[in-house]
Amino acid sequence: MNIDKIRQDIRGLSDGKIFLNNAGSSLMPIPVVDSMIDYLQQEEQFGGYEIANRNAELLEQFYEETAKLINCKSSNIAFATSATEAYAMALSSITFKEGDVIITTVDDYISNQITFISLKKKLNVKIIRMKNLPDNELDLEDLENLIKQYHPKLIAVTHIPTNSGLIQNVEAVGKICKKYDILYLVDACQSVGQMVVDVEKISCDFLTATGRKFMRGPRGTGFLYVSDKVLEQNYAPLLLDMRGAHWSAFDDYELFKTAKRFEHWELSYASLLGFTEALKYANNIGMHAIEHYNKGLSERLRENLKNSGFQIWDQGNNLSSIITFCSPDGDLENIQKVLKESNVFFSVTYKNSALIDFTNKNINGIVRLSPHYFNTLEEVEKVSNILRIIL
Ligand SMILES: Cc1ncc(COP(=O)(O)O)c(C=O)c1O
């Protein structure tokens, strides 16, 4: 991995900032931004329809690059405007009835939890959260017992929560879902682009991701993976449009075969193209190399902060490039002040975004640093030294 070249590809680094908010919204590489500007200028000259036609082959590369990234076929991929939209499209294709059970985890993303609660309020669906073991790993025995007791319609797991460095064991859950033939939805919003994500190994029916975080794409982009099994069983969004089906008779339609049936007809092709460039960029470097590098950076940063006396809140056997921490007395203000003064980019998560996790941890919030492969060990040391002075 040529870090110098990778850093030269980021106009946003020219002012010397240290950017450690890749779990929020990362810095786009130059080819991503330039491809969008170029596409918009073409639209400016000839209109969006003409330019989409002229660039049809190029635009198809989005599906190929995404498929390459997560190890599936391009026919399994739908473009989405966000991870949340992809998630909603997937959920809407499942016909929930009163009493149906969704099993999820205590660490699933806030919006997923709110969506499940909405299904509970509207359709009387039951939400059950599998337990965590004392080491914060998923309790798979509990999961099997819950499956036998409740026969769930869906199991939904967030691969990497937004608010802790945990990596949940989605592969092990996938094996269990396969054994009991249960629909399996994985939120890979924080893992795609950060580490290797392989849908064959995870063995899921749906997987969702966003463009702007570790993928380094533009805002307003994301994707949904839909398995062949689910496509063959004619799952489709509740509110389908002409992107999803052929209007075959006055009162009938025929579903299109590929996962594109989960898209809406109208979308920003400039954004899709920018996202495609980001996917190409990651694929060219290689996700194994990116994962390996990220592990090195995040372990060093976590270790440094711990050694300085900060309270680290990442709990689990397998941790990600998200480092969450606070001062020993729980203070976040001083950390934020010092980081801002030093031109370090970070984010803060409060209890309302991680209600169950932070209640269990008995904390009100954390500072989150999320390094990525364009960061250097020198930057990690610099930030560690800046923070060490506070304590
Ligand atoms: C784990 C996780 N899932 C889903 C989302 C939602 O992504 P989007 O805002 O693209 O819908 C986020 C965003 O922070 C996230 O961290």
Automatic annotation (TrEMBL):
The keyword Acetylation does not apply. Keywords: Lyase, Pyridoxal phosphate. The keyword Mitochondrion does not apply. Gene3D superfamilies: Aspartate Aminotransferase, domain 1, Type I PLP-dependent aspartate aminotransferase-like (Major domain). Belongs to the class-V pyridoxal-phosphate-dependent aminotransferase family. PANTHER family: BLR4730 PROTEIN, CYSTEINE DESULFURASE. This is Selenocysteine lyase/Cysteine desulfurase. It comes from Chryseobacterium arachidis.
